[in-house]
């Protein structure tokens, strides 16, 4: 059973899973809370499970330079490090 992280974290189990995968506390909280309130897009949350086109669109939204020449793996790395 997931530990209670207080009222600021809406999905404790997902929050802990994301931390175990190496996500920052801030990013894990944003994702867990978005999923809990239903505002998380229903696409795959794991970047590896998303298409290259989907990753490209995400990179475009967050303003990653050089995205048009990146491979899927490079897009994943760029999104994670942004």
TrEMBL record:
GO biological process: DNA-templated transcription termination
Domain annotation Rho termination factor-like N-terminal: ranges: 48-79
Region annotation Disordered: where it falls in the sequence: 31-52
UniProt feature, compositional bias: Basic and acidic residues: 40-52
Short name of any one Pfam family annotated for the protein: Rho_N
Name the UniProt record assigns to this protein: Rho termination factor-like N-terminal domain-containing protein
